[in-house]
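Researcher: I'd like a candidate sequence for this fold, 364 residues long. If you have to choose between options at a position, lean toward the conservative one.
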């Protein structure tokens, strides 16, 4: 892959220092900063303040958080309560609880749980395995999603395939390849002419800052647009397919993703444009049936709306946009109902956003 995603991951375990390192995504694309996570509080802060973000990466960070908790916890009970704190760091992405519980289960097995060193080793090994699993799942999502892009390209007789994506569901969010971006990289590598409309994704601009940065480094044609431009482009035949990621999807097909995703799905439906959601199975919530009623939606600091961050002649600054005293509401995610989703692209293949079809792919 002609990007750093093969060599550079957004999180890694540094064997020499035995610490966990992450790319501090708050600073991209203007500064490349690496942060070291040494304590459970560091991990919680990195997740809450979004040094790391994106569902699979939040999960992997939580998994390494269990390793760090194992290093610092003298007893099993301490470890369990540290894991509860980790799981509460952000509410919407189900990957966090999934990954923390997966590592904790391994650590608490009778053969490891009695000895501190064994607990630490088991946690580190399992966290690294989850990171590898997510990278591999994203690679497979790319392979399956490629067929959808190939189909459009053939229909257009090799003409440019215009894809639209929201937020950043790229390798920065997912260890490697990304979810929504994996089929784009696969298409690009297969010589398909693609162009990506990148929603800027207010308030934190993950699209403009991160997706544009990733695609640019890979040489993929892209254009950053305002969050409100997608409907207009769809009405004028300028979007062939929408692909987004998700933070939590019910097994019945409802999808929670970055705020504004629902409006893109509505516009896609109105214009008869396929709207696909790419996700690894770690993002399915197997307990929830009704996404709208049951998925917790994070509300974040209103200052993220009131201030915009950017580079001012090489210096990163925050500037105030609305009147000083105007209140702001920062809803971080919304739920797109299954009826607006054309299909899921998963590591096991493509399926409809219905309980029946999801269970067909994931009977286990
Ligand atoms: O608030 P963020 O940046 O963590 O939100 C991320 C998203 O909404 C992504 O689309 C989602 O996590 C899918 S990442 C593969």
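Model: Candidate sequence:
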């Amino acid at each position: 892959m002609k990007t750093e995603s093969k060599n550079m991951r957004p999180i890694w375990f540094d064997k020499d220092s035995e610490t966990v390192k992450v790319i501090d995504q708050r600073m991209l694309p203007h500064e490349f900063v690496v942060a070291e996570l040494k304590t459970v509080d560091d991990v919680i802060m990195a997740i809450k303040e979004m040094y790391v973000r994106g569902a699979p990466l939040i999960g992997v960070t939580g998994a390494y958080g269990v390793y760090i908790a194992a290093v610092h916890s003298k007893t099993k009970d301490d470890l369990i309560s540290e894991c509860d704190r980790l799981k509460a760091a952000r509410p919407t992405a189900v990957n966090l609880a999934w990954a923390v519980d997966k590592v904790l289960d391994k650590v608490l097995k009778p053969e490891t749980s009695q000895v501190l060193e064994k607990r630490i080793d088991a946690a580190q090994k399992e966290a690294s395995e989850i990171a590898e699993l997510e990278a591999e799942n994203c690679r497979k999502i790319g392979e399956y999603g490629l067929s959808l892009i190939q189909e459009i390209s053939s229909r257009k007789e090799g003409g440019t395939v215009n894809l639209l994506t929201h937020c950043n569901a790229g390798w920065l969010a997912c260890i490697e390849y990304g979810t929504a971006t994996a089929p784009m990289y696969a298409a690009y590598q297969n010589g398909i002419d693609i162009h990506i409309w990148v929603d800027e994704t207010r308030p934190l601009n993950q699209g403009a800052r991160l997706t544009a940065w990733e695609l640019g480094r890979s040489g993929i044609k892209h254009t950053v647009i305002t969050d409100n431009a997608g409907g207009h482009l769809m009405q004028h035949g300028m979007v062939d397919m929408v692909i987004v990621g998700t933070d939590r999807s019910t097994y019945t097909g409802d999808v929670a993703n970055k705020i504004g995703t629902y409006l893109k799905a509505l516009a896609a439906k109105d214009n008869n444009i396929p709207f696909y959601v790419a996700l690894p199975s770690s993002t399915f919530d197997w307990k929830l049936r009704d996404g709208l009623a049951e998925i917790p939606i994070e509300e974040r600091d209103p200052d993220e709306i009131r201030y915009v961050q950017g580079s001012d002649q090489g210096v990163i600054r925050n500037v105030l946009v609305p009147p000083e005293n105007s209140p702001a509401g920062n809803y971080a995610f919304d739920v797109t109902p299954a009826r607006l989703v054309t299909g899921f692209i998963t590591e096991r293949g493509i399926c409809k956003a219905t309980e029946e079809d999801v269970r067909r792919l994931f009977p286990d």
